[in-house]
Design goal:
The protein is of the alpha/beta class and 401 residues long. The protein has 13 helices and 19 strands.
């Protein structure tokens, strides 16, 4: 007869929130395993729970001779749960059943009397990550904190990137005796100290739709060069940016391409590298006006300004100041699988771009964009042509690997 293992969502800590099935199984099973915190919370229900660390739990369960075992995991078994890693380690011969519980998301939203079907969820508990894009492009973001990333650290990051007035609710030690639910701005909560068992609900009523492209008229331009919208849209599409990507815009000008890239990398980060101070200030103004809070403006010249940045997945080169080869070589050194796009308005730049990408073993694609816009002349609409632009894209040629 197969052993039966029940992975039980123990909820947020209050045994009154356990389901009836969970309570019955905890009492009935031959052995019950859990971490120290869960053992302390559930002890009024059963005194002989076997306490062990997360790292040793699977081995102890597999070594057990009990026929019916309960494993207690915090929250709900389907919500950033220990269950996922346990399933990879537990005895394959055992019959495993999951028993759902109350998650911290459910509990806090019930306390605040709000629904949660449209809330973006991210876990920073014991892992690195950023929430800037999620906050920029969603009305609500729920954040699990803990480990090296405390709730106050998240609030400090929001302040650092211009979101100090955004509304944040912190839920600490939910359902337990020391429960604390506090509301305020990111600035106000950044000065607080929170326990590891803290979650955040961030509200951004001014979020933007990341799927919408931007028109030239959306940007503050002044006298700084800007990639026209038709060229910008095709260039960004050719780069095939994914939601979690890290992307560069090198020679960013007004930041028009960078902001489009930031929207595509709505769970990642975009970096706008620009050497002219007046252009950097424009990028920052456009970033704020268009809500692109996952965009970082870097006042530096490439390639030197790229060295300390996170590894890029995609990169756009709108201006190289004569350093195209050095820039491309550094991008490839940081990530051999990087995808690169270069815009050229002269045949010389087109030729140089193709030669540089070919020399490093990239396969390339070239598109020439000839766009014309209607302009009212008296009672007529005259088509006024923009300069043709070459869009060169390249990435590793797998045939040469």
């Amino acid at each position: 007869m197969k052993r039966k293992i029940f992975i039980i969502g123990a909820g947020t800590g209050d045994i009154g929130l356990l389901t009836k099935k969970a309570s019955s199984l905890i009492r009935e099973c031959d052995e019950v395993f859990g971490t120290l915190r869960i053992c302390e919370c559930i002890s009024p229900l059963r005194r002989d729970i076997i306490c062990c660390s997360i790292t040793e739990m699977a081995a102890k369960i597999n070594a057990s001779q009990a026929a019916k075992i309960a494993v207690l995991v915090s929250g709900d078994t389907g919500f950033f749960s220990l269950k996922k890693s346990l399933l990879k380690q537990l005895d394959e011969e055992a019959e495993i059943e999951s028993v759902c519980g109350i998650s911290s998301l459910q509990y806090l939203c019930a306390k605040l009397d709000i629904s949660y079907e449209n809330i973006e969820v991210v876990s920073l508990h014991g892992r690195d990550g950023n929430i800037l894009g999620r906050v920029a492009y969603n009305p609500y973001v729920f954040v699990l904190t803990g480990g090296s990333v405390k709730a106050q650290d998240v609030c400090k990051q929001l302040c650092e990137y211009g979101l100090e007035q955004i509304a944040v609710t912190a839920g600490e030690m939910l359902s337990m005796e020391r429960e604390r639910i506090i509301k305020g701005t990111a600035r106000e909560l950044s000065s607080q100290e929170f326990d590891d068992l803290t979650v955040l609900l961030i509200e951004n009523p001014h979020y933007v739709e990341h799927d919408l492209p931007l028109k030239d008229s959306d940007f503050i331009r002044e006298n700084v060069p800007m990639t026209k919208e038709e060229v910008r849209w095709i260039t960004v599409a050719k780069l095939a940016v994914l939601p979690d990507d890290v992307v560069y815009d090198i020679g960013a000008g007004t930041g028009s391409v960078a902001i489009e890239l930031a929207r595509k990398a709505y769970r990642g980060l975009a970096f706008a590298i620009e050497k002219e101070e007046i252009a950097v200030e424009l990028i920052k103004r456009n970033r704020k006006n268009l809500g692109a809070y996952n965009l970082v403006a870097i006042a530096d010249e490439a390639p030197a300004g790229l060295e300390s940045l996170p590894t890029p997945n995609k990169a756009f080169i709108g201006g190289s100041s004569g350093n195209l080869r050095e820039i491309v070589e550094l991008l490839v050194a940081k990530n051999p699988n990087v995808r690169i796009a270069v815009n050229a308005v002269t045949l010389e730049t087109l030729t140089q771009s193709l030669n540089v990408l070919s020399d490093i073993g990239f396969k390339t694609d070239v598109v020439c964009i000839n766009a014309a816009r209607a302009k009212k002349v008296g009672g007529y609409n005259m088509m006024m042509a923009n300069n043709p632009v070459y869009i060169i894209t390249g990435d590793k040629d797998e045939k040469q690997c």
